[in-house]
Amino acid sequence: MLRNIHSQEPNRLDVDLALFGALGDLALRKLFPALYHLDREGLLPSETRLLGLARHELDRQGFQAKVGSALKSRVSAEDLDKKSQERFLARIDYLKIDFANPEEYALLRDWREGSSRPMIVYLSVPASIFGEICCNLKAGDCLDEKSRVVVEKPIGYDLESSCEINDVIGDVFPESRIYRIDHYLGKETVQNLIALRFANPLFGTQWNQNHVSHVEITVAETVGIEGRWGYFDQAGQLRDMVQNHLLQLLCLIAMDPPSNLDADAIRDEKVKVLKALKPFTGEAIGRDVVRGQYIAGTHAGQSVPGYLEEEGADKASHTETFVAMKTEVANWRWAGVPFYLRTGKRMPEKLSQIVIHFRQQPHYIFDPDQRSLAANKLIIRLQPEEGIALQVLTKDSGLDKGMRLRPGPLHLDFHSAFPKTRIPDAYERLLLEVMKGQQYLFVRRDEIEYAWRWIDHLIEGWQAHELPPRRYPAGSWGPVASIAMITQDGRSWYEDY
Ligand SMILES: NC(=O)C1=CN([C@@H]2O[C@H](COP(=O)(O)OP(=O)(O)OC[C@H]3O[C@@H](n4cnc5c(N)ncnc54)[C@H](OP(=O)(O)O)[C@@H]3O)[C@@H](O)[C@H]2O)C=CC1
Ligand SMILES: O=C1O[C@H](COP(=O)(O)O)[C@@H](O)[C@H](O)[C@H]1O
What we know:
By secondary structure, the chain is an alpha/beta fold. The chain has two domains: 16-180, 3-Layer(aba) Sandwich (Rossmann fold); 185-424 and 444-487, Dihydrodipicolinate Reductase, domain 2 (2-Layer Sandwich), CATH 3.30.360.10. It has 15 helices and 17 strands. The protein has helices spanning 25-40, 60-74, 82-90, 106-112, 130-139, 159-172, 188-199, 201-204, 229-254, 263-276, 283-288, 414-417, 426-436, 445-465, 480-487, and strands at 16-20, 49-54, 92-96, 119-123, 148-151, 178-180, 212-220, 289-295, 297-299, 302-304, 322-327, 339-344, 351-358, 377-383, 387-395, 405-413, 470-473. The strands form three sheets. The protein has a nine-stranded mixed beta sheet with strand order 16-15-14-13-7-12-11-8-17, with helices on both faces. A six-stranded parallel beta sheet has the order 3-2-1-4-5-6. α6 packs antiparallel against α14 (445-465) and α10 (263-276) runs parallel beside α14. The protein starts with 15 loop residues before the first strand and ends in a 10-residue tail after the last helix. Residues 183, 221, 223, 240 line the site of the ligand O=C1O[C@H](COP(=O)(O)O)[C@@H](O)[C@H](O)[C@H]1O.
């Protein structure tokens, strides 16, 4: 169904939201604060009810108190007023159930008794139990033809496990009611990529291999493993960040214009990009991909341990905490344009940024010493300090400067441009879209599977070539080899803004 995503007026819809894993990190740190903000901004209709489900003995008040203290630590004092908080907490119920026990789902059915609102089931639990919960919901007669399910990333560990999980979820819910989260798609600036590319004719005509020389995507994190060794060491940065977030960003940059803003029109175009990603073969694995693992270093002036010294670490782990790669989208629009991707933990600053480097003029008439400056760049800052800057060249001012060129940005900083507008957290946007029943910010099954196909192939190559990660000190921009990878092409990672 084509839904109206253009409207400023949200399609307000009462729902019952059942959140599995309600005492977990994601639920308390992100989901309840996001729901609070929606409520405070008047976006949760008064009938909407929220239910936390977990296996700990707690009553309703006890759970509300936990959510209340999560709000205190996650929501700014300015946004946390007593009236909004009380109204929000009053919507919240709690059920203790063991998700593995089908009998206990009767409690959820009873909670729903008499409600005609659609139920949204949010699975904020490990993917290994998504299937079991879906089957128990069905067996326990908790669902109807309006129920939707939201599942967190990562879906599986590789193509095979991802297909298994998707099969079980798909036995219970049709694709049109499955919402697979990639929280990067909920970030305001990521959505802005669609507006930037498809609303501005200026870029529409330039967005191809005739005009773009190369593209950089950097997602640098300052955090380390944060007590998640068990999960992270199985995954590594390639599965944790590239398979989902970085490939989604690449798709939004590289895709052809969708014919409209309908979810499937956008997702069809993203799938075409994933299918066109060039596989890494033979020597390209060693040449165009760099794996890294951080050793002890510093963060914010403090010493921090290396990956192998983190709590719970297996000292012989070869899991990568950093990846840089050069890839290509092998189609008419992008043939020959390198896409350089890099992402890592324990880097010097948190920075998610896309840089589009445009080609130089065919004939250059200025000072030969300045030739390397003479190209435009479009810098899209996703976080922090969200904004867009177009690096242009002007004449340096002053009587003694002759026709010297000066690069400078035409800069749109979202915080100063829209000072009264709070930039919402990604989960606010995503939760709102699920409640409205709109899927355009969620990932379709085939997107996930094409992404896994490409990643699996890369991992097989790593394994075949026995490529251990290269070391980099915490607080640095990754292994020296990641800098060499781009400099050997006569380029460098863009670090100014
Ligand atoms: N945390 C994050 O920032 C992110 C998380 N995700 C994804 O979100 C999901 C949740 O992650 P996160 O919150 O970090 O994980 P947590 O381990 O913190 O939370 C999972 C919750 O599920 C509960 N649970 C697990 N099994 C059962 C069961 N059989 N019966 C009842 N309760 C159960 C756990 O209960 P108990 O406490 O008793 O073990 C826990 O409260 C995962 O899929 C993760 O990959 C994705 C992106 C970021
Ligand atoms: O999905 C994940 O994302 C976070 C980074 O998210 P951000 O919104 O803070 O950029 C990452 O730290 C985590 O390892 C990964 O699972």
